[in-house]
C-alpha cells in the first residue's frame, strides 16, 4: 500500500485550497483528525494512515464546485499519482451501505456523464471494503467545516441540503452500525476522542 506522507498530503490539500478555497478544506481537516483519533485507539489501524486518508478523501474538490462528481475526480487524480488506496477512499467514503452501493441511492447529484457514472457503479460493485474504507465513511459524517459533530447533526445537515430519498433511513442505520462497529473495536465512545465536539455540535461555550 503506497500512500502520501502526512507532509505530502498536507501540501496536496493546501494546493487544492488555492484552486477551490471553500469550506470543504476545513471539513477535510476535521475528518482527518477524527480518523487519526479513532485509528490511534484501534488494534489494527494506523493513525497517520487514517489522517492522510481523511485529508485527501474529498481531494476531487480541487477541480472546483461540483456535487458528487468530486468523488470520481478525486479517484482519478489520486490514481494518476499512483496512490491507488487513496483513490479507493475517494470513492468508497460516500458509500456507507455495503449492501447497496448504487450511485443513484446516494444524496446529491452525480454531475457527470453516463459513461462516468457507469465507471463509478462498476468500481463500487467490485470493490472490497476494509476498515479504512469504513473508518472514512464514519468520519466523513463526524466533521463539519466548523468542527466535529454528532452523527445526528450531520444527518440533518445532509437532509436539509439534499432532501430525503428511499436510501436516507438505511444510510442513517449504516452510519450508526459503523459507530457501533468502531466503538466495539476501540472500547470507548467515538465522541470521547473528538475534542470540542459539544461546543461545535450544540453551539455552547466551553466551561
Q: Can you walk through the features of this model?
A:
This protein has one domain (6-201). 59% of the residues lie in helices and 0% in strands. The chain has helices at residues 6-19, 24-41, 47-56, 69-80, 84-92, 114-126, 131-140, 151-162, 168-186, 197-202. Helix 1 packs parallel to helix 3 (47-56), helix 2 crosses helix 7 (131-140) and helix 4 runs antiparallel to helix 5. It starts with 5 loop residues before the first helix and ends in a 5-residue tail after the last helix. The mean pLDDT is 94.
Count every beta strand, where a strand is a DSSP E run of 2 or more residues.
0
Q: What does the average pLDDT come to?
A: 94
| Principal-axis shape | globular
Number of discrete domains: 1
Keywords for this structure?
207 residues, globular, 59% helix, 0% strand
List strands and helices in order, with pairings.
Elements: H1 6-19, H2 24-41, H3 47-56, H4 69-80, H5 84-92, H6 114-126, H7 131-140, H8 151-162, H9 168-186, H10 197-202
